Automatic annotation (TrEMBL):
One of its GO terms (molecular function) is ADP binding. InterPro entries: Apaf_helical (IPR042197), Leu-rich_rpt (IPR001611), LRR_dom_sf (IPR032675), LRR_R13L4/SHOC2-like (IPR055414), NB-ARC (IPR002182), P-loop_NTPase (IPR027417), RX-like_CC (IPR038005), Rx_N (IPR041118). GO terms for biological process: defense response; response to other organism. The keyword Hydrolase applies. Residues 446-516 form the Disease resistance protein winged helix domain. Residues 569-919 form the Disease resistance R13L4/SHOC-2-like LRR domain. Residues 6-97 form the Disease resistance N-terminal domain. Residues 182-359 form the NB-ARC domain. It comes from the Eukaryota. Keywords: ATP-binding, Hydrolase, Nucleotide-binding, Plant defense, Repeat. This is Putative P-loop containing nucleoside triphosphate hydrolase, leucine-rich repeat domain, L.
């Protein structure tokens, strides 16, 4: 994938800073010419790249040439990065000096030492300049070589198409190949025949969306040829749309299909063509199929004036569109009648496969072929195209051994699969922008069926510097756009969404994964360590860019491939491994690393050489339970953007100089309970957007970051957790922290120091000062020792609050007022031992107000839980008001004294789940068939009443 690499590199070259490094300028200035010459060489190469990428498929020497080009490009990228790092370093040092001077604690620097440092630096700059010179020489040779290959200059988009012949579809269908899809078929037919009155309007646009090979065209053909449909429409036209979207060609195709004799079809005037179409279909019921539409360009779509033409047709006319891109449906404003095609079930897939594989040789099924076939179908992962391809492949194979071979081979090594299955995917792939292609290919570093968390994926892309833009657009935003772009083209699927409907995780279809692995096979390698297998693998002499190792056993990290191949490695991920240490020499071999994931191992320490990985941007050391400290050298990673230490529970402290990590955007330290405090320097990190957990220091410590520092960290986003509140200064520190100003914070969790038995003083003051910004959506407060809820007065103003969790408030007698929060959806209350009665205070209204309350209380509440309320006896309510109309789940557990549920609950139609566990009194009242109150709740569909 040189294309994306080079376009990004060119941008970087264009923005190289020459003037910045003061002492260095003179030395580096002669590099300026080399950089210019490098850029112009690269531009000349870029012009033939498209052709080269295609030629490499068949020509080995072109492949080598491209590989050399990629190597040089990567090296240049590294050198530029080193240069930038040098600039960063200088900024940090200058900053530090300023800091030291201000504090007037400057120590005399031994003169010779100072000089030595300068000389070192000069040598380093000189080396950078020399590397650039060398790389330029190499690239000049490569650029000259390109003449040998007779490349064509690229034209604008659309040429990709010649590479892969697009299969023309037609409206003829082989009925025998339709399996599954009954539901979709019924739905589609009822829409076409307008069986429901809801599909109002004169005409409908129905998009059928799904990834390549999912059977969109097949389904459409089936509907198109259906007898009822044929009788229903007076005119039917099927057009296979090509990319680029050419209005004239499309119009001509429609006319040709309407009337072979039509003389107008030779015209090149769109208007003429369109009015010709109109005369043919006017006042008729017209069905138009546009197969395989790619364009999302509204102007092109609108210039076809189909809506004008359809207006003149008889009511009920329809346009059916198949596409891989949801964006097409959006562009046509037809998402409401969209049909999504998903995977076939195993059974349907098997039936489809069998119908082809055993065509005319039914008797073989019982002869052992059937069993192999069943295994082969598992590889199809519900994709009909693969089932068809493999089915026809084995149909030609006469022996069981041959079938077994197909089963044993990697799916992308089967030539037929490459040709027929990857081809449709390749079309989707070529449709992506170069930068998005890179992001997709990076997913080849994950194993099959791996759940991709969206925010992590974006962090990873960022760490590889894939998310650049010319403007000032925020990288995360760009990452989100790329993610969407891949999702809408069905490269991602199985979405997991949060309560607001935002995608938080996804997977790749197995075939898409195979496809991506196929494209990135040279750069991304996944190796599973097999016990007792110490043989070094040689991945065909290629330099590995991204390496994923899985299941490494206990012991030191050892590479199953030789170091030589790893030297320019940019990603190292260990999955499901348990290495205990990593040697300094291994680290020194990976100097180009951008991304390092050592999560979930048993590392005892991280060697100080880690500081040499100056390109590193993402480091995940989470869940290394034996890790007690990090070397100070971590603070030399000036490019580091993300540091993940979640769950390193024995980590005792973080390096003091963390203020030097001027690019740090995300610091994740939740679950590092061994940390006594966060170092002060973190407070000065201007780039820091995510600090997921703050540890309040017990006692005084000069080096500790005080809570009050949060006051100057307005840039913090998403979520913050504060641990160990309750100290005597905390109220004033929280006040300084000004949580009320953090408008980008949507989740806040605070946990007070546990310490029970006696009520701690000062919690009221702390709670008062906690008042967050009203944009807050989720609030968690634990172990708070307030006696009344007065200090929580601000809760009523949090109009955006959706989730609240309260736990272990051992001294509070009443619940806080939640009833008027307009968006509250989830409320969980655990262990409020002093609460005896829940009444109007919970609704958020005053006793005397009772009479005049109007409106609805808890209007959006969906889930409510009460756990471990040892003294709770009574739950009263007001009969005149509507309460919790949307409640669908109620859980009550271990509330031994609670006598009854309030009547209003019986009448909530939405309530579908009620679970009462370990509540002896309630358990008796509501006992199935026996209890006095049973009839009041027996209508609830999902009902559980258990004694334990
Ligand atoms: C086209 O022209 C041929 C010969 O002139 C004629 O037989 C045929 O019916 C025409 N078809 C239509 C659809 O007008
Ligand atoms: C890092 O590795 C851990 C497990 O080893 C995995 O759960 C996590 O998703 C990985 N992180 C990324 C960003 O790939
Ligand atoms: C609950 O059920 C009992 C017995 O069926 C009935 O007498 C009582 O009125 C019901 N309560 C409500 C509020 O419907
Ligand atoms: C039934 O209740 C359980 C919890 O008690 C819940 O996990 C499950 O999703 C509920 N089922 C339905 C169909 O609502």
């Amino acid at each position: 994938m040189a294309e994306a690499l080079i376009s990004v590199l060119l941008e970087q070259l264009a923005s190289v800073v020459f003037e910045h490094t003061r002492q260095a300028v003179t030395l580096v200035l002669n590099a300026k010419e080399d950089v210019h010459s490098f850029s112009s060489n690269l531009k000349a190469i870029q012009a033939v790249l498209e052709d080269a990428e295609k030629k490499q498929v068949t020509e080995a020497r072109v492949r080598d040439w491209l590989q050399n080009l990629k190597d040089v490009s990567y090296e240049m990228d590294d050198v530029l990065d080193e240069w930038n790092t040098e600039i960063l370093k200088q900024q940090v040092e200058e900053g530090e000096n300023a800091f030291v001077t201000k504090k007037k604690v400057r120590f005399p620097t031994p003169a010779n030492c100072f000089c030595f440092g300068q000389v070192n630096k000069a040598i380093h700059h000189h080396n950078i300049a020399r590397s650039i010179k060398k790389l330029n020489e190499k690239l000049t040779v490569i650029a000259a070589e390109k003449e040998k290959y007779d490349f064509h200059l690229s034209t604008i988009r659309g040429t990709d198409e010649q590479l892969i012949q697009r299969q023309k579809t037609s409206s003829l269908v082989d009925i025998s190949t339709i399996f599954g899809r009954e539901e979709e078929k019924e739905f589609l037919l009822s829409k076409l025949l307008r069986e429901s009155n809801q599909d109002g309007g004169r005409f409908l646009v129905i998009p059928i969306v799904g990834m390549g090979g999912m059977g969109k065209t097949t389904l459409t053909q089936l509907a198109y040829n259906n007898e009822k449909v044929t009788a229903h429409f007076q005119k039917k036209v099927w057009v296979c749309i090509s990319d680029p979207f050419d209005e004239i060609k499309i119009a001509k195709a429609i006319i040709e299909s309407l009337d072979k004799n039509e003389t107008q079809r030779s015209s090149n005037e769109l208007e003429t063509l369109l009015s010709c179409i109109k005369t043919h279909v006017e006042k008729k019921k017209f069905l138009l199929v546009l197969d395989d539409v790619w364009t999302e360009d509204k102007t092109k779509w609108e210039s076809l004036k189909l809506s004008v033409i359809l207006q003149s047709c008889e009511e009920g006319s329809t346009i059916l569109v198949t596409t891989r891109k949801e964006g097409v449906a959006e562009m046509m404003r037809a998402t409401s009648s969209m049909i999504h095609l998903d995977k076939l079930s195993y059974g349907d897939c098997l039936a489809l496969f069998n119908s082809i594989a055993f065509f005319d040789r039914e008797e073989d099924k019982a002869n052992g072929f059937g069993a192999i076939g069943e295994e082969i179908v598992k590889k199809c992962k519900g994709l009909p195209l693969v089932a068809k391809t493999l089915g026809s492949l084995v149909w030609h194979k006469k022996t069981r051994e041959e079938w077994q071979q197909v089963l044993n081979s990697k799916i992308w090594e089967i030539e037929e699969v490459e040709e027929q299955v990857f081809r449709p995917l390749l079309l989707s792939y070529y449709d992506l922008a170069p930068a998005v292609k890179r992001c997709l290919l990076y997913c080849a570093t994950f194993p099959k069926d791996y759940e991709l968390r969206k925010h992590k994926l974006i962090d990873l892309w960022m760490s590889q510097d894939y998310l650049n833009s010319k403007g000032k657009k925020e990288k995360r935003r760009i990452g989100q756009n790329y993610f969407e772009s891949l999702s809408m083209r069905s490269f991602f699927q199985d979405f997991d969404k949060d309560c607001k409907g935002n995608i938080i995780a996804c997977k790749m279809h197995d075939i898409v994964h195979d496809f991506v692995r196929f494209l990135a096979q040279k750069e991304c390698i996944i190796i599973e360590a097999v016990q007792g297998n110490n043989k070094k693998m040689e991945p065909s002499g290629n330099k590995v860019c991204h390496l994923t190792l899985t299941s490494l056993p206990e012991g030191p990290l050892s590479f199953p491939i030789s170091f030589d191949n790893c030297k320019s490695m940019r990603t190292l991920t260990l999955l499901g491994s348990s290495i205990t240490n990593i040697s300094p020499s291994s680290i020194m071999q990976m100097k180009c690393l951008r991304t390092l994931n050592l999560s979930g191992n048993s590392l005892h320490e991280v060697p100080k050489e880690i500081g040499e990985l100056t390109h590193l941007r993402y480091m995940d050391l989470s869940d290394n339970r034996n890790l007690k400290e990090l070397p100070d050298a971590v603070c030399d990673l000036y490019n580091l953007q993300t540091l993940v230490l979640v769950g390193c529970q024995y980590l005792q402290k973080l390096p003091k100089a963390m203020g030097k990590l001027i690019n740090l955007k995300h610091l994740y330290v939740t679950g590092c309970y061994g940390l006594r405090y966060l170092p002060k320097g973190i407070g000065s990190l201007k780039s820091l957007q995510v600090l997921d957990c703050f540890y309040v220091c017990e006692g005084d410590d000069d080096e500790a970051l005080k809570l009050g520092y949060l006051g100057i960290m307005d840039q913090l986003q998403v979520s913050l957790r504060i641990e160990r509140l309750g100290g005597k200064d905390d109220a004033s520190e929280i006040e300084k922290a000004q949580l009320g100003n953090k408008e980008h914070l949507s989740e806040l969790a605070v946990r007070f120091e546990m310490q029970s038995l006696e009520q701690r003083k000062g919690d009221d003051e702390i709670v008062k000062a906690l008042q967050p910004h009203q944009n807050l959506e989720s609030l968690w407060i634990g172990f708070c020792q307030i006696g009344t809820t007065e200090s929580l007065y601000w809760i009523k103003s949090l109009h955006n609050l959706r989730r609240v969790y309260l736990c272990n408030w051992q001294f509070c007698q009443l619940l806080p007022p939640f009833g008027k929060l307009p968006l509250l959806e989830i409320l969980d209350i655990f262990r409020m031992g002093k609460v005896k009665k829940v009444g109007v205070e919970f609704l958020g209204i005053e006793e005397e107000e009772e009479e005049q309350v109007s409106g609805i209380l808890f209007p959006k509440l969906k889930r409510l839980s009460f756990w471990d309320m040892a003294n709770w006896e009574e739950w009263t309510f007001l009969s005149e008001i509507t309460i919790m109309p949307r409640l669908s789940e109620l859980h009550i557990r271990s509330c031994p004294k609670l006598k009854a549920l309030p009547d209003f609950l019986y009448k909530i139609p939405a309530l579908s789940t009620l679970k009462i566990v370990a509540c002896p009194i309630l358990g008796g009242e509501y006992e199935k068939g026996m209890g006095k109150e049973w009839h009041n709740i027996s209508h609830i569909p999902n009902l559980t009443i258990q004694s334990e």
